[in-house]
Amino acid sequence: MNLIELRDRLTTLFGIVILGLSGAASAAEDADAPDVLFIVVDDMNDWISLLDPDAPIKTPNLERLARRGMLFTRAYCASPACNPSRAATLTGLRPSTTGVYGNKSDWRGAVPDRRTIMQQFMVAGYDVRGAGKIFHHHLGGAFHDDESFRNFQPMRPQKYPPNKLNGAPEYGSPNTDWGQWPSREEDSIDFHTASYCVGVLSRPASGQPLFLACGIYKPHSPFFAPADYHNAYGDIALPARKEDDWRDLPAGAASLLRSTKWFWQGMMNVEKKQEGSYQNFIQAYAACTAFADAQIGRVLDALDKSPRRDSTIVVLWSDHGFHLGEKDHIEKFALWEKSNHIPFIVVAPSVAKPGSRCRRPVDMTSLYPTLLELCGLPADANCDGDSLVPLLRDPNAKWISPAMMTYMRGNHAVRSDRWRYIRYADGSEELYDHDADPNEWHNLAGQKRYAEVIASHSKWLPTTEAKQVPDLKRRQPRPEIKR
Fold it and tell me: Measuring CA to CA, how many Å separate 363 from each of 40, 73, 75?
């Protein structure tokens, strides 16, 4: 860091401290300021009992949380990839506004002066703490924002068994693995994260409201979870698939998904060599989801024992969904329903009725303005999303905006009550009627009778799009000076 960069960094920090001291006084004087428990889960899709009682993957702790507040049954990520999704949610700005489109995009370089939601609460006098995966975790924590927390426990590095558990060393990387591991739950990444959050909730600082961010890594790959979590899913069914599902896809879809085709093709190659591998993969994803739910349960237990339980706003969301072979696709990085539909719960005492459900399609750019309003902080006019407080008060309230998702520049999806409309960078399109085709097997975009439906959805697409920002590079150590 040169002297100019150091000066600018110190100036920014000084400004945040001064504003923070001013905000701290006002927050400290407000005895009714609510605490916030902010839980983000990685790669959790909608094949869970929270969203569908008949789903095979059971999430009792998520259901327990939903009984306290409002479950948004049609919630969607801002982007089906970790970095752009988290950057958009934590800044309230869409990828098309910032240019943060990919997992390598330098999000902080794109918006150096934008306060994250955590910084907004720090300025308001909150004790902001966190643990686990909040920002994207690649490059040894380079995507993390130190200035968003007063105290933070980084996510533990992923540990691996001596050899791949799936018996397929040629398939992908060490992360492309699944099985029963580690033997002790206490040795897992998320147990460590949850334990930190349990400790903070058990010993809250006096005199300041708390904002606690808890980042749960599973069910992100590798799909490792202790044996007990696998045992419950030994006979899990495979996801619904259609053999010729790509027959009616446009060129834009094939182009966007070209770099990820190897996931599905590789899985089928492993299945040919080792029959049952695909089902074991599904079983392991289910086990990891159940494990994540259990760690969230530990955090909720600590909240229940806290004297601030009834004055704590809780939000839980997943950064995006995940395909398990539906549409011949594994991973996220697509604009179909499975990659974008997520669990989203808001517990807002005295605002949202316990056990309520909202079916309005919403996306996660709304979380930033929602938390500001719920906690009485000044609104931010630059947010791309709208506050969800009207829906929290009345799930049937008028709501005009559909949910919108973006993956890489020029590729967008719009989700309304009934339809999913996708337009790719080359102008090609997909349209699915979710009332008749929840699996998105029949692309209707080429049929003239749906022209009005397409027109009503395409009007929500961004008219201007930021250029993609440069990728964040691995930080290089300074060269040693020889004397």
Answer: 14, 11, 6
Determine the Cα–Cα distance for residues 262 and 268; give it in Å rounded to an integer: 10
- How many residues in total does the chain contain? 483
Specify the pLDDT at position 476.
45
Give CB contacts under 8 A, 24+ apart, made by 245-251: 245/327, 245/328, 245/441, 246/327, 246/328, 248/442, 248/443, 248/446, 249/430, 249/443, 250/424, 250/426, 250/428, 250/429, 250/430, 250/443, 250/445, 251/424, 251/426, 251/428
Q: CA 412 to CA 45: how far, in whole Å?
A: 19
Contact 210, 30 (CB under 8 A): no
Output b/e per residue, 265-299; b: 16+ Cβ within 10 A.
ebbeebbeeeeebbbbbbbbbbbbbbbbbbbbbbb
Residue with tokens 């698939």: 241
27 band by pLDDT with thresholds 50, 70 and 90? low
Beta bridge partners of 29: none
Residues of the chain with pLDDT > 90, as a percent, come to 89
Active site members: 82, 136
Give the rounded distance of the alpha carbon of 93 from its chain centre: 15
> What is the rounded distance in angstroms from the CA atom of residue 343 to the CA atom of residue 364?
11
Q: Report residue 64 as tokens.
A: 């327990």
- State pLDDT tens for residues 178-217: 999 999 999 999 999 999 999 999 998 778 999 999 999 9
Listed residue (151, 193, 204, 387) closest to 311, CA to CA: 204
Give the distance from CA 46 to its chain's centroid.
Answer: 12
Strand, coil or helix: 324: strand
- For the chain, first and last CA: distance in Å? 21
pLDDT the model gives residue 30: 61
For residue 41, what are the β-bridge partners?
216, 318
pTM: 0.93
CA distance 284 to 234: 9
Contact 173, 274 (CB under 8 A): no
- Summarize pLDDT for 29-50 with one digit per residue, the tens: 465 899 999 999 999 999 999 9
Which long-range CB contacts under 8 A does 300-305 form with residues at least 24 apart? Answer: 300/61, 300/64, 300/65, 301/198, 302/197, 302/198, 302/201, 302/202, 303/37, 303/201, 305/201, 305/202
Report the SS3 class of residue 351. Answer: coil
Measured on CA atoms in the order 375, 353, 291, 262, is the torsion positive or negative?
negative
Let me know if 435 is exposed, middle or buried by CB neighbors in 10 A (0-12, 13-18, 19+).
exposed
